Amino acid sequence: MPSPATPATPTTPTTPTTPTTPTTPTTVSGLLRSIAAVGRDRVRGGFSRPVFSSAEMDLRSWFVEQAEERGLEVVTDSNGIIWAWWDTASGVRQDAVVTGSHLDSVPGGGEYDGPLGVASALVAVDILRARGTSLERPLAIAVFPEEEGSRFGIACLGSRLLTGAIDADSARRLTDADGTTYADAAASQGQDPGLIGVDARTLAQLGVFVELHVEQGRGLIDLDQPVAIGSSILGHGRWKLSVGGQGNHAGTTLMTDRRDPVVAAAKMIVSIREIARTHPGARATVGRLQPVPGGTNVIASRVDLWIDVRHPDDAVTAAVVEAIRARTEVQAAEEGCTALLTLESLSPTVHFDVGLGGRLQELIPAAPLLHTGAGHDSGILSTHIPTAMLFVRNPTGISHSPEEFVEDDDAEAGAVALADSLAGLLS
Ligand code: GLV
Ligand code: MN
Ligand code: MN
Fold it and tell me: Pocket around ligand 1: residues whose beta carbon is below 6 Å from it?
């Protein structure tokens, strides 16, 4: 088990050490096993590692330890992104080749979504060192906070702050389910929330970003390949639907006298599925629903539900959402309730950089191209620097679930593909 969480020190580099052979496992599967007890969720199953929780902070400490063992210089920036640098002889941090991923998880998530990319990056450094690679450009491993948006609602919050895709004031005001603000949560882990926001200095150091990730669907099963190169990310967004009604007593309120938002929400959820099904290629999900106040013998006064909508064509996503808005307003009125739909975040469809993708195809020619329906920090960074992704086969085809899986051999093949890609880009 890693040691207890150490508060991050924004913008302060740790003392660089001489490159050494790590004393801990240097296989991806070994690294993942060494953190397999962190954030296990006994209630939901799988792992719950929300940003700034003790589990996520333990993983950050683990990463820092691993990076320092490899002689990388670790800096936690003002947005809580950890950067582990392997510098060139000149020490100039410019046009860097960046890899990495995230360590936070969805509630009850799998073992690989995020940590696979971080562990593979560490192993790729070992492989490059063992090959005696000399760097023409610096290499950095990045660990992004709140990629899942499972605590504060906005996916890829760290990379959005870095690039200015969300303004700092809005981010500071975000609250989690317990009412803790992002500003307070960041401060409780030693970060200065006054310093968050677009970070031109760090952005200027970055050249390209290659994120390795577990595949979250069945693409590589069907292609019978261990590793693919990402081609695009499906556009996606999150909306909050607040359905207001009349809170009341479950025993004394006649069925004819109720304005029950839970009943309205039940009809809405069925309609949301129907609307998505009438738009080919669309996906719409209600995965989180919160009745207020939430008592067995209480008719709720309000239900908040969150809708995730995705489609390759951003105009279709907008049309799906408008159809949902129109239908849910009518359904709310039918139950004597109100409905308010608000946008929380939007990420347009991303086509990864063609030049970088082509270069990766030369470097790892066996890997097919594959698109993904899942969101990633690489999508946010793609508006600033060329980005690319590698996907590693998931034999269950299931993700955001404890059933997500990667075979050990595929994990190691992924790290080799990443090392080959980085080597080509670094030379
Ligand atoms: C993150 O994995 C997402 O696709 O929402
Ligand atoms: Mn992920
Ligand atoms: Mn995920």
Answer: 148, 155, 374-375
